[in-house]
Amino acid sequence: MTIAREKPKPEKPIEESVEQRFRRLESQWMEDTRFLSSSTQIKQHPAFLEIISLGDVVVPLMLRDLEENPRLWVWALPKITGENPVPAADQGNIGKMSTAWLQWGKAKGLQW
Amino acid sequence: MGQGQGASVVNHLFEAFPKLIANRSEVTSPASEKYNCIAWAAGDTQRWWWPEASEDIFWPTQIPSEVTIESFAEAFSTLGYVQCADADFVDGIEKVAFFAKHANPTHAARQLPNGKWTSKLGVSEDIEHELRDLEGEAYGVVVSLMMRPTP
């Protein structure tokens, strides 16, 4: 007699907070792109694109990072927000771009 | 690697660049996202250089935003560099070397007054090294050299 075995139920995935997911993706992105100089390749990395897809909720997290050091989040912020507060003369200057975004965040009343 | 560098810093560089040899290479500054290898080779630590037609990247005005060795050569010609034949050290001359993988530019290094070379490894550290110790899977090989009088 065959005993029907109940299929094991898939384990409920451990839910990540937004920040946990953000940091996991950040870690993967940085690990895979750390030695690249091509901005195109860095921006096209799947983890970077997934971070952008998280939307406005990660903007404070990025601004928090920018307060500590100039970061390439300045490449993601225009895509997420649809805005660009960086003066044309500062094109490519990651430090000045970071400052411009921090000023933008404060003007918007964001908290991080 | 030079004295005082953490094991984790050394390990990740050796893994990516197997030709790097501890007693002839050294980490010379910490990781930074402010500038990349092309910027460092051009002497710029404030901007990210790459021929991407984008308002958030720097590339010399009027130089085609094309990811080709020719475009990189044109960009560096704006800094006074001209093509040269070899990587030999010449007193009073500063050289830069461009790496490519399958004809796609990947990296640039600049020669130091002591004859060694300096490279910024993406967002990672600057290192001092022998030129061809960075050849390999990550960056390909040296494909072009340029020179100018040392500023």
Helices, strands, pairings?
The complex is a heterodimer of chains A (112) and B (151).
Chain A: H1 18-33, H2 39-44, H3 46-53, H4 59-68, H5 77-81, H6 94-107
Helix pairs in contact in A: 1-3, 4-6
Chain B: H1 7-16, E1 26-29, H2 37-41, H3 69-77, E2 82-83, E3 93-101, E4 104-111, E5 117-120, E6 126-129, E7 141-149
Q: Overview of this structure, please?
A:
The complex is a heterodimer of chains A (112) and B (151). Chain A has six helices and no strands. With 112 residues, chain A is mainly α. Chain A has one domain. In chain A, α1 (18-33) packs antiparallel against α3 and α4 (59-68) crosses α6. Chain A is globular and about 60 Å long. Chain B is of the alpha+beta class. Helices cover 16% and strands 26% of the residues of chain B. Chain B has three helices and seven strands. The radius of gyration of chain B is 15 Å and the shape is globular. Chain A binds chain B through residues 30, 33-40, 69-72, 74-75, 78, 84, 86, 88, 91-97, and chain B through 12, 16, 32-38, 46-50, 52, 54-59, 67, 106-108, 120-124, 138-139.
Main sheet characteristics of chain A: none
Q: What is the total number of structural domains of chain B?
A: 1
Q: How helix-rich are the residues of chain A, as a percent range?
A: 40-55%
- What is the average of the pLDDT values of chain B? 91
Distance between the termini of chain B: 28 Å
Structure characteristics:
heterodimer; A: 112 residues; mainly alpha; 6 helices; 0% strand; B: 151 residues; alpha+beta; 7-stranded antiparallel beta sheet
How would you briefly describe this protein structure?
Chain A is an all-alpha fold. Chain A has helices at residues 18-33, 39-44, 46-53, 59-68, 77-81, 94-107.
